[in-house]
Specification:
Blueprint lengths: L2 H21 L15 H6 L5 E2 L1 H4 L1 E8 L1 H23 L10 H8 L2 E6 L3 E6 L10 H4 L5 E6 L3 E6 L1 H25 L6 E5 L2 E7 L3 H12 L4 E5 L17 E7 L8 E9 L3 H14 L7 E7 L18 E8 L4 E2 L3 E8 L6 E7 L1 H13 L5 E5 L2 E4 L11 E5 L6 H17 L6 E9 L1 H54 L3 E2 L1 H30 L4 H33 L2 H35 L9
Parallel strand pairs: 1-21, 12-18
Antiparallel strand pairs: 2-8, 2-20, 3-4, 4-6, 5-6, 7-8, 9-14, 9-17, 10-11, 11-13, 12-13, 15-16, 16-19, 17-18
Helix pairs in contact: 1-12, 1-15, 4-5, 4-7, 7-11, 12-13, 12-15, 13-14, 13-15, 14-15
């Protein structure tokens, strides 16, 4: 026998042993079970086949992406960028730097207001300055168009086609962000898919106890902004807050030239304090009380209490307050390179340590350098987490977020850990709203998978018995190749940590039929050659040679169908398509290459004079 056969035989045996070791840990079971793998196998091959939601139960969550909010955010971004470009035209700013003070100086000469959901208007204090907003400046933005011009104002609207692309991108980016957050929680077997403007998240094996944490991490927008507090603003002094909301003052530093000023804020306490305060602030925005370039944000007030100060079972009353900030964010979460949980060396409480990328570090250094002795609000999802005073210029690209006022250590640690997950994954491009939530018990999945496995095993057994009885020795070879094909398929699924669903089990059963089909074509070709009086070795060679293209054509057409199903199908259909496509590849390999090695061993190694092919 030629030496090439020994090499091919070694390849088949080696791959078979390796595939068995890769798949073995996926069998699971107790350590005392007869099929349980030894420790060296589980430590070496750590990847497993994950069971789908329809098999082991879990959570199915559906979220609707509020894509119109993404459109409004893009409109606001373009409006802000327009002010920055005009700041350069007025020569208040340089091309590379736009400080808060320079932007505020520009806002004395130009005002930007929203028009509907997808438009904005630029109004000049001096009508003659409208010439600064020329066609060259507008052309810098490819997704806005001028729709009207008066003596002192220009109106713009977002391009409809660009906005449609933005909506599609918002859904795709939201799916990717949610998938990264789930990976950060260690739930790699979860499935995340899109259905029009909805995102469906399937979490196999998740329990009801994990539900709240998972839902909180997934739905958090995680929009992080660093904004300078305007403690010298006085417009809140002219309002009369409604019952339940009071006005207060505090002495703070508002810069090196104003080390002590009286800052005005609003406060509310009680269960719905935050909602009441936010609703009232929204009314102030609607009636124009809050001036252009300013925002009033809310944050939880620090009561100065520790968890140890409270009696057993007592919880501190929630108190919320407002901060007046400049609406422009000099640094955002897009500039974050890394986030991690750290412990304060003074009190031991956990906090989130941030590291900026190079451009973010430069921007943060400029922000702190220009606002020494002013407060800087760290804003997360429109909530002020903390507002420390900038004591000096901060270089090195590092910042921190303290969380969990008046909470126990474990509660603060959990909150910090969850925040790290969402900051590392990035902010959602638009808010998402729960549309449907289902907690699926494992009993239904267990019944279904039991029936599916029984059906698949019965089908495989019938095929194996038929092949052995009808094609005799060739049928036995085909049976061995079928089993080897299933082993390779399961090993590949385990290597990629694929999720096995009930449609996936159906795909495995179908793969068995396709694997047998290849062996039937080869065996029938060999049978024809033997009837013509050819020697067994020649019959084997010609049988494989003549059947190859027929096998390849039939498998290729099925592969194309699998690709189409994977591209356009939903979750269960994709599970079926994945096992189908992998099964086609392994079927061709075992049916052509491995089967040829087995027949060569029969006719050349054992030198059989009569090849039994039925």
């Amino acid at each position: 026998m030629d030496r090439g056969w020994y090499f091919r035989f070694a390849v088949v045996v080696g791959l078979g042993i390796y595939a068995a070791l890769v798949f073995w840990p996926s069998l699971g079971g107790d350590e005392d079970a007869w099929y349980a793998p030894p420790s060296w196998v589980t430590s070496t091959f750590q990847r497993r086949i994950a069971l789908g939601l329809d098999i082991q139960g879990g959570l199915r969550l559906m979220y609707e992406v509020e894509v119109e909010q993404a459109v409004e955010d893009r409109r606001d971004l373009r409006a802000q960028q327009m002010v920055e470009r005009l700041c350069e035209r007025f020569e208040h700013c340089s091309e590379d730097e736009h400080t808060t003070e320079q932007i505020e100086e520009t806002r004395q000469e130009v005002r930007v207001s929203s028009v509907g959901r997808d438009g904005f208007r630029v109004t000049f204090t001096e009508a003659s300055d409208i010439s600064r907003l020329d066609r060259d400046l507008v052309n810098l933005f490819g997704d806005i168009a001028e729709t009207g011009r008066t003596a002192d104002s220009v109106t713009f609207v977002m391009d409809p086609q660009a906005m449609e692309r933005l909506r599609e991108q918002a859904v795709d980016q939201a799916r990717e962000t949610i998938a990264e957050r789930i990976d950060g929680l260690g739930l790699r077997e979860a499935g995340v898919m899109t259905r029009e403007e909805n995102i469906v998240v399937e979490l196999p094996g998740a329990t009801e106890e994990q539900f709240d944490q998972i839902r909180s991490v997934i739905s958090r927008t995680a929009r992080l902004e660093f904004k300078v507090v305007d403690d010298e603003a006085t417009f809140l002094s002219s309002i009369e807050p409604p019952q339940g909301i009071s006005r207060g003052t505090e002495t703070v530093s508002a810069g090196e030239d104003h080390p002590s000023v009286q800052s005005i804020y609003l406060t509310a306490s009680g269960e719905d304090a935050r909602t009441r305060l936010q609703d009232y602030v929204a009314s102030l925005v609607a009636d124009g009380t809050i001036p252009d370039g300013r925002e009033v944000l809310v944050g939880q007030a620090d009561l100065g209490l520790d968890a140890e100060d409270l009696e057993e079972g007592e919880t501190p009353q929630e108190v919320w307050r407002t901060y007046t900030v400049h609406s422009r964010a000099d640094v955002t979460g897009d500039a974050i390179a890394d986030a991690m949980v750290a412990n304060d060396p003074q009190d031991g409480n956990p906090y989130v340590a941030l590291t900026f990328d190079s451009s973010g570090a430069d921007a943060f250094e400029r922000l702190t350098s220009a606002n020494v002795r002013r407060r800087m609000a760290i804003v997360l999802d429109d909530r002020v987490e903390t507002a420390p005073v900038i004591q000096s210029r901060i270089g090195g690209g590092r910042a921190s977020i303290t969380l969990g006022r008046n909470e126990a250590y474990q509660s603060m640690l959990n909150e910090a850990s969850d925040l790290v997950v969402v900051l590392r994954a990035g902010a959602l491009p638009a808010p998402i709203r729960p549309a449907n939530e289902q907690l699926i018990g494992p009993s239904l999945g267990a019944d279904a998978v039991a029936q599916g496995i029984v059906g698949a095993l019965v089908g495989i057994a019938i095929v194996l018995v038929f092949m052995a009885l009808y094609y005799e020795v060739a049928g036995i070879v085909a049976d061995v190749m079928v089993l080897l094909n299933v082993l390779f398929l399961l090993a590949i699924l385990a290597a990629f940590e694929a999720t096995l669903t009930l449609p996936g089990i159906a795909g495995i059963a179908l793969t068995v039929g396709m694997a047998v089909d290849a062996n039937v074509l080869i065996t029938e070709r060999m049978r024809e050659e033997l009837r013509l009086g050819k020697a067994p070795s020649s019959a084997v060679h010609l049988g494989f040679d003549k059947a190859f293209w027929s096998i390849l054509d039939s498998q290729l057409t099925t592969l194309i169908a699998g690709v189409v199903l994977f591209q356009y199908g939903t979750g269960p259909i994709k599970g079926f398509a994945v096992t189908l496509m992998i099964g086609i590849v392994t079927s061709v390999f075992t049916g052509v290459f491995c089967s040829k090695v087995a027949f060569d061993w029969l006719v050349r190694g054992l030198k059989v004079t009569r090849l039994r092919v039925g």
